[in-house]
Amino acid sequence: MKPAAGLKLTLLGGFQAQLGAGAALVLPTRKAQALLTYLAVPLGQAHSREKLATLLWGDMQDAQARGNLRYALSKIRKALPRTVRPGLVLEGPSVALDPAIVDVDVARLERLVADGHPEALEQIAGLYRGDLLAGLTLAERPFEEWLTSERERLHELAIQGLGRLLMHQQKAGTAEPAVQTGLRLLALDTLQEPVQRAVMRLYAGLGRREAALRQYQSCVDALKRELSTQPEAETTQLYQEILRSRTIRPDRTEASDPASRDAGPGSVAALLSTATAAQPESPPPTNLPAPTSELIGRAAALAEVTELLGVHRLVTLIGAGGIGKTRLGLDAARELLPGFADGVWVAELAPLADPGLVPVTVASALGLTLPAGAESPERVATALGAKRVLLVLDNCEHVIEAAARMAAALLNANPHARVMATSREPLRAPGEYVYRVLSLELPADGAQDREDLLEAAAVKLFVARARAVDLRFSPDARSAVITGAVCRRLDGIPLAIELAAARTATLGLEELAVRLDDRFRLLTGGHRTALPRHQTLRATLDWSYELLSERERVVLQRLAVFAGSFVLEAASEVAASVDVAAEDVVDAVVSLVTKSLLSADVAGAVAQYRLLETTRAYALEKLTERGEFDQFARRHAEYYRSLCERTELEWATSPPDDWLAVYGRQVDHVRRALDWAFSPRGDGSIGVALTVAAVPLWMNLSLMTECWVRVEQAIAHLGPHLPSNPGRDMQLFFTQGMVRLHTHGMGSPEMFAALTKALDLAESQDNSEYRLRAMFGLYVYHLLLGDYRPALATAQKFRVVAATTTDPADARIGDRMVGAVLHILGDQPGARRHVEPLIGADFSTARHSHIVRYQWDQRVVTHCYYARILWLQGFADQAMRMVHGIVDYARTKDHPASVVYALFHAAVPIALYAGELTIAGEFVKLMIDLPIKHGMEPWNAWGQCFEGVLLIKRGESSAGTRLLRAGLDRVPEAAFHHHTNFFLSELAEGLGGAGRLAEGFVVMERALARAKRSEEGWCFAELLRKNGELLLVRAAPTDVANAEECFRQALEWARRQDALSWELRSATSLARLYHRQGRIPQARKVLTPVYQRFTEGFTTADLLAANALLDALR
Question: What are the angstrom distances between the C-alpha of 423 and each of 236, 299, 329, 395, 434?
């Protein structure tokens, strides 16, 4: 039995020492912590003093090393109160910890794994909080080698124990705890495919199919990122089974212990944080950047911030520039990630010159694409819904009011959201808790002891950054004193310390101190005061600037025109001139990175460079003073005009992810260039050209409103002061028309006028590319309004022009357009003749450019219409297979609009037609969720309509009609006319089922009138049939005869269109009426021949109902 006043060591995840009474035991140095840890692992083992001295002070003389050991041991003893036994056993030359006195979490972990019982294994996740002594590093090779070995051993031990627990839970059938254990294992090593499969099976067995599919994608991403490989065949097969909704046994275990695989290094922070909420189903999503260096000197602040965000919903980190607000905030966000199931997201506001861009920047960070005209904080909050997220608003001070509104809107609308902001001043928003970020801890004035000096946080940071540029940097006693003085003169500001430390490799520490002393004496008058951020940083930047060569100074100034990250090519093109050659610019960029005035991100294939925010402002001021701002702002705008002119060509041939990786980050540069170009001192001709060139960028980032605003701005600049350019104007008017489709409602007169202008200009220029684009736009315009004859004429003209182009996919799209209109008009054989040859045709040669031209993946569009035709013609099984295939295909592509298109036009309606209500429900959920995430509000309205139909089909007529009517109220008047009639007929049926027949007839009459007016034949037979069913429900004196006539007319319409499925429904309704009237022979005569023409689909609801009726008629 241990005494009550023992010592508790927590070493997994960091270093904590606690006395039995609960007080913390504080050791003064990291080496003292390291020494105590070495004595505790394994607990009770004796070590010679010579071994311990060599372990931690091996680079010193023996006598000095032994003296330091004695000093460290004395520090440990003094830290303990006299009433508590220290637990140190000192016997001659040996040192050990008494296991009867000391409790160590490492020993408990080993005991739990050795025990092996589930009750013991369940404690592992809470015990293993991270690597042994996480965050502690020493420049002593023997200790570091031991620490690395022990970390790997304990990591493997935790995996082994959790792996055994997972197997116990699977065998016991406790699926929910097993999921959590599997996720904990994957947090330790995400490359364990047997565990990935186990979690997928568990999710599927619990009915959480979407979570299982997300888990597979997580596995794919991890293998690609870490090993550049694909999942094993067994994993892929399981994914396909789940995707097709096959029954998965949740209790199936892998053939071997999932923990037996060799485990690579993995992050355990998300698993082990004890301060967070319950674990999410899978690792939460985030856009947080990975840390590039250790966070030094902020352990207490990090704990305070994470704790505050558990209590307060809005926490703002404020402090001087360069104080480390962003770094602290991002590290706190990483700590909190496991507690936010829907992710932690950072919105970088520094590049924004316009406060109005705050909502769209936040929406982009959250993975939302705002619907047209919805750039307001309230609409972002609405689109986010009730998701559990933490949003980090970084660098708010220049858009402080907009940031405050954004934070307030999110918190008012969503009780599960948290916001952390970094700013030079408070947001002054309701409920805000202001946390002031202080300077790093400084050594005491007059401190001379090397170890004490090196323990100060500011000095630790200086040493770490100095070693990054010179591995030989290791302060002796004298240089430690100088380093402490430098850090004090820099007020402990991390940015200033890092800039200074970067110079030690070239200046040396003493020369650095002399120069820095001179500067700060000039600016502060020899005493420390609380100066504003820009003054403190200006002192550091002035000093750094004067260390540069003239060429470096000039290049630094010119780089200030960039709005964000840039590549060497951009730097060379913009900053080079007659006095600075392109190769000199490259050399200067490399030198500026070395001197920490530029940051470099080399993680991708092409290095990205970025000026710190304050450095850029400083350099821009210098450029303006030099009188060269307009000259290089022009160069910047011209460069990005040229860059954007390449975007569409490369989009046609590049994978979407690669294209967006290169061009997606350029949007801030485009904004800044356009702001200058359209300013009084700018050049409108560059602005107009850049606007035209940037359209593919806006379209592919779904920044529709921004695109519309910029296009309108460019059109306003057209006139006599700009040279005539019909090609340019053609592109502007085309974009104006197509963007209005998204921003001002579907089928607006302005859309028609702009597209007509574009077509006229394209024809005058004999430009087949834009003739096709403009004609497609006008085709969509007519289609949306229900003007199907003009739409067909436009589609036929499109085919004529498409036959003259070099891209064979254009002609295929023309055939698809004609087939789609014929399908709507009711000519199913004609539609099939145009569409069927396209199945399997290659749309891939220019697939991406067709998305820019035509909005959706053309393979998706073609297969959707073919599936609809197949179903109407009686091939329900083929139609359902095609639906599943096209949804699977669309979901593998990085274009959400195409997924939604597949769901709307084919997957949901065909599943409903076939009576596959479970499958339809899954599709409907996806169709509701995707538009919310990507800001496609009209599509979400259609999803709501389908949800209402689904309820009606399930017998919940009252609830279904309310939901369906609300959805139709949200749909624009001119939007997919032919689908509106389908929904109106379903609404009428639901109203009838809810006993509201009068309203049902009004709605049905409206649907029939619309269909007649627009010649919308594809569903006319079904509208007539449903009208007849409503008449039978009302059962007025003439209603039965009128219903019979409706069924006869429906049969005739269906036969003329070769719509066998509508024909079966009409025949079944008529035969059911005859059966009720006792007219059995007539009923058999109507239904039997229609039923016998089917060759498939016998398990669909319609054929099952017809077969049951035929049995009753026998």
Answer: 46, 21, 11, 5, 10
Neighbour count for residue 525 (Cβ, 10 Å): 9
Specify whether 118 is located in the same domain as 75: yes
Same-domain status, 239 and 325: no
Distances (CA, A) of 1003 to 447, 556, 977, 981: 87, 69, 15, 10
DSSP-derived secondary structure letter, 280: P
Residue with tokens 């009780």: 415
In the chain, pLDDT over 90 holds for what percent of residues?
Answer: 34
User: Is the residue at 204 inside a domain?
Assistant: yes
Tokens of 959: 């609830």
Q: What is residue 221's predicted lDDT score, i.e. its pLDDT?
A: 84
Alpha-carbon gap, residue 680 to 749, rounded angstroms: 33
Angstrom distance (rounded) from CA 168 to CA 122: 10
Q: Residue 790 corresponds to which amino acid?
A: P
CB-CB contact of 182 with 202 (8 Å): yes
Asked if 887 and 1022 sit in the same domain, the reply is: yes
Same domain, 164 and 205: no
pLDDT at position 744 is 60
Beta bridge partners of 344: 286, 390
Q: Which stretch of 447-451, 532-536, 724-728, 1016-1020 has the lowest confidence by average pLDDT? A: 532-536
Domain CATH for 308: 3.40.50.300
Q: Mind listing the pLDDT tens digit for each residue in 979-1008? A: 888 999 999 999 999 999 999 999 999 999
Residues 519 and 412 in one domain: no
Give yes or no for residue 899 having a pLDDT over 50: yes
Where residue 167 sits, what CATH number does that domain have? Answer: 1.10.10.10
- Residue 95 host element (H or E): strand 94-97
Residue 872 has a pLDDT of 96
Confidence of residue 51 (pLDDT cuts 50, 70, 90): confident
CA dihedral (630, 631, 636, 637) positive or negative: positive
Tell me which H or E stretch contains 213: helix 209-227
How does DSSP classify residue 606?
A: S
Structure-token match 């189903």, residue found: 281
569 occurs within a structural domain: no
Q: What are the DSSP calls for 503-524, one per residue?
A: THHHH-HHHHHHHHHHHHHHHH
pLDDT at position 627 is 93
- Is residue 981 located within the same domain as residue 1106? yes
Give yes or no for residue 977 having a pLDDT over 80.
Answer: no
The span from the first CA to the last CA of the chain, in angstroms, equals: 87
- For residue 420, the cross-strand partners are 315, 392
pLDDT at 374: 64
Count the domains in the chain. 5
Give the type of residue at 757.
Answer: K
Residues 625-649 have a mean pLDDT of: 89
229: three-class secondary structure by DSSP? coil
Written as one letter, the residue type at 128 is Y
Cα distances (angstroms) measured from residue 733 to each of 686, 711, 718, 726, 899: 17, 8, 11, 10, 28
Q: What DSSP state is assigned to residue 604?
A: S
Rounded CA-CA distance 1030/215 in Å is 47
Q: What is the mean pLDDT of the chain?
A: 83
Domain range for 358 is 299-436
CB-based burial, 537-550: b 16+ in 10 Å, e otherwise: bbbbbebbbebbee
Does residue 373 have a pLDDT over 70? no
835 found inside a domain: no
In DSSP terms, 47 is beta-bridged to 95
Q: Which CB contacts under 8 angstroms, 24+ apart, belong to 814-818?
A: 816/858, 816/861, 816/862, 816/865, 817/776, 817/779, 818/792
Residue 88, beta-bridge partner list: 97
Q: In this structure, are 944 and 989 located in the same domain?
A: yes
Inter-residue contact 854 to 813 (CB < 8 Å) = yes
Q: Which two tokens stand for residue 268?
A: 């355990």
Whether 766 is covered by a domain: the verdict is no
371 and 491 inside one domain? no
Domain boundary among 465, 494, 528: 528
Separation between Cα atoms, residue 661 and residue 43, nearest integer Å: 51
